[in-house]
Structures are given as structure tokens and as C-alpha cells.
Amino acid sequence: MLSSSIRNTTANAASRLSSITSQVRNSSTITMKEAIVSAGPSVKIIDSPVPKPNADQVVTKVIFSGSNPKDWKISSPTLLTSNAGTTNKLTGSVQT
Question: How many CA atoms lie less than 13 Å away from 12 in the CB half-sphere?
Fold first, then answer.
């Protein structure tokens, strides 16, 4: 049996997803939210166009994402951009 907290979180996520899906269907330009992460941590959320994949790529619609605390503490720009040892988590679906 799911706790009421989990049920509420799931219901809220489903509501947000439904709202976003509706906005995308009604928009001529499809955009997404993009998190620009810098050392500090510093995070900037911007609207970006959804990328068009090449023949050997896919676009993944991310529903939930997260990072481990050690990944937020990386201060080296080289490590931050190389994904060396990062363990970001996400769940979503491949878009067709």
C-alpha cells in the first residue's frame, strides 16, 4: 500500500506532466527546460528547443532527475564537463 505522501507526489507529477503535454501540443515551437549546472553549486534553468536527434541517436523525455551530493561539490570545470565519476539519475522515456 502506498503512503499518502507517495500518492500525492505521484498525483502531482501526473498533473504537471499532463499540463506540460498539453502546452507542447498547443505550441508551434517545442521547448524543454534545461538545467545549466556550474560549480558552487549554481543552477540556472532556461527554456531550450528540443534537440533533433541524428540517425544514431534518441531523444529522452526526462520525467524525474537527480544528482548525488558529491557531484554538486565538484569545483573543477574539467571534471564538471567530462562526466568523470558523476552518477546522475534519471527516469523517462525515449521519444519517437
Answer: 7
> Total domain count for the chain?
1
pTM score over 0.90: no
Contact present, 39 and 77 (Cβ < 8 Å): yes
For the chain, the C-alpha Rg in angstroms (whole number) is: 16
Contact yes or no for 19/27 (Cβ under 8 A): no
CA–CA separation, 15 and 9 (whole Å): 10
Residues spanned by the domain of 53: 4-95
Residues paired with 44 in a beta bridge: 36
Residue listed under C-alpha cell 519517437: 96
Lowest mean pLDDT among 33-47, 55-69, 80-94: 80-94
